[in-house]
Design a protein that fits this description.
alpha+beta; globular; Pnp Oxidase, Chain A; 181 residues; single chain; eight-stranded antiparallel sheet; 8 strands
């Protein structure tokens, strides 16, 4: 049932484009907590057959950034909740592009101007896997939530900087996230 590929192709790219949510998984090198985060909105971009990125918005934690600094391992998963029963995983090495990074402006231009932009996560994909997804339920997409955008707007730029400094500088396991303002 599972199939493996060295790179993304047009068919897999089309599958990704149909999905309204994706999940990001990472973990520290030794012990600690595995992180699995849902992502939505217009925040995922394909950069080539073996590279992709997503816009990471300010949230309650910054585990992925800490884990990428620690060991670079990253998995991104898409699963269809509509017609096609399929799961797609992108395995690879990730890195964080912060606001002071030379690649920030070029990558940031690929996304809508969401409030609360924190960083961009780039993944170099070394393995692509599809699997059946037969147990994933069928669900209707009702729309995007505006809760995070409203929260970020209410904080304002200085409030977001203070929030990230307080809540996003260290992982649950005390690893630095490298957040730069």
């Amino acid at each position: 049932m599972a199939k493996f590929f060295k790179a993304l192709d047009d068919k897999l790219n089309a599958f990704i484009a149909e999905q309204n949510v994706f999940f990001v998984a990472s973990a520290p090198a030794k012990g600690g907590h595995v992180n699995l985060s849902p992502k939505g909105g217009d925040t995922f971009r394909l950069l080539g057959p073996n590279r992709a990125c997503y816009l990471d918005l300010t949230g309650s934690g910054n585990e992925t950034a800490a884990h990428l600094i620690d060991n670079g391992r990253l998995t991104i998963m898409f699963c269809s909740f509509i017609r096609l029963a399929q799961i797609l995983r992108l395995f690879g090495t990730g890195r964080v592009v912060g606001k002071k990074h030379p690649d920030w402006d070029g990558l940031c231009a690929l996304f809508p101007d969401y409030p609360g932009r924190r960083q961009i996560v780039v993944i170099d994909i070394d393995l692509v896997q599809t699997s059946c997804g037969y147990q994933v339920p069928l669900m209707d997409f009702a729309g995007e939530r505006d809760t995070l955008a409203k929260w970020a707007e209410s904080k304002g730029p200085e409030g977001l900087i203070a929030y990230r400094s307080e809540k996003n500088a260290l992982s649950l396991d005390g690893l630095p996230t490298g957040i730069e303002e």
